[in-house]
């Protein structure tokens, strides 16, 4: 019973963990492996946070630390982005051609960002962590998270604008979110 409850609690976060892993690696197979390794470590842990926000941040920290450990041990990988694996939604009848171009443009701009920008954007905008959860994940003050996400979003927007200048592809920004309550 205890194991089933733990597994069920973890399953609620698998898609978000995968999105975070994919945002950091640009590799669907490696992302699946990271999520698997994270799940194994989380299920084997003796002490698990009871509070849901702390549990969520703990899972993302496991994934991030696993990636860091693997990166230290492995030779450098190709950073090419496989745009065919972007989202299951891409190419479906619900997406227009413009939305597909926008998604690819943003994903490619994202892949060109420095690792620290990709990491904070992946945690907050892809995985949906709150600023407080990201602060716990990265072990930094919440104010630092807020300034880093602001700089990362600006850098991403600049890359998208550069793509527009080079290719005449126009990506329209989403409405801005309020930072309070996030």
* Cα-to-Cα separation, first versus last residue: 35 Å
| CATH fold group of the largest domain | Arc Repressor Mutant, subunit A
Question: How big is the Rg?
Answer: 17 Å
Q: Show unreliable segments.
A: 79-93
Q: What fraction, in percent, of the residue positions are helical? A: 55-70%
- The average pLDDT is 80
Structural class: mainly alpha
Strand content: under 5%
CATH class of the largest domain: Mainly Alpha
What's the shape?
A: globular
Structure, described:
The chain has eight helices and no strands. It is mainly α. It folds into two domains: about 1-75, Rna Polymerase Sigma Factor, Chain: A (Orthogonal Bundle); about 90-175, Arc Repressor Mutant, subunit A (Orthogonal Bundle), CATH 1.10.10.10. The radius of gyration is 17 Å and the shape is globular. The termini are far apart. The model is unreliable at about 80-95 (pLDDT under 50).
Task: Give the topology, please.
Elements: H1 2-11, H2 14-25, H3 28-44, H4 52-73, H5 97-112, H6 115-126, H7 131-138, H8 142-167
Helix pairs in contact: 2-3, 2-6, 3-4, 4-7, 5-8, 6-8, 7-8
